[in-house]
Write a structure and sequence with these properties.
Length: 183
């Protein structure tokens, strides 16, 4: 009988230990858990690299956009615009933005999730992914820019046509409701 009670107590302890471990993993991620994740992914450095990667295509887009009218602009216009863009990007409150992400991660991930993610990014493959991500983002941005530009041009043209139609349409009498053109 004594052995049966000991076995039962041992079984209950094993179940309780497993349940406690599962409960800890299912617990909400703490601010410290998320900060550990943000540290292991080098979030500040990654954000800086991503911004640097985004600036080049943005400079190119600005160049193409405004250089159509370069004869109307000052000769140093492009240099001034580039400096303004660079200064604007560098003055962003990146650390504040990173801290603003903490509650979002806490909302969507448990402690167990964060622990698993941290384990991945702490491993060589995770570190390689972090190292390659800025170059991948830069290449992806460059490959998407023609598509984005084409879409923006089409959207701008459509808006201009709609505005022109609105300006040329007869003005409704106060008692009439304006007609909306279908898409």
């Amino acid at each position: 009988m004594r052995r049966l009670i000991q076995a039962l107590v041992l079984a209950l302890l094993c179940v309780a230990t497993g349940w406690a471990q599962q409960s800890a993993a299912d617990a909400p991620a703490t601010k410290e858990d998320v900060q550990r994740y943000l540290d292991v992914i080098h979030s500040r450095e990654m954000m800086t690299q991503m911004v640097d990667a985004m600036i080049k295509p943005m400079h190119q887009m600005i160049h193409e956009q405004f250089m159509k009218d370069k004869d109307k602009l000052p000769t140093d216009f492009e240099a001034r615009m580039n400096k303004m863009m660079d200064d604007s990007m560098k003055s962003f409150p990146w650390d504040e933005m990173i801290q603003a992400m903490v509650p979002v991660y806490q909302k969507h991930f448990t402690k167990g999730d964060i622990d698993a993610i941290v384990a991945f990014y702490s491993a060589p493959t995770g570190q390689k992914m972090l190292k390659e991500m800025p170059a991948m983002m830069s290449e992806a941005t460059q490959s998407m820019m023609p598509i984005i530009r084409k879409q923006m041009e089409a959207m701008t043209e459509r808006i201009q046509q709609e505005v022109a139609q609105m300006l040329n349409a007869p003005k409704p009498k106060p008692s009439e409701k304006p007609q909306v053109t279908p898409n």
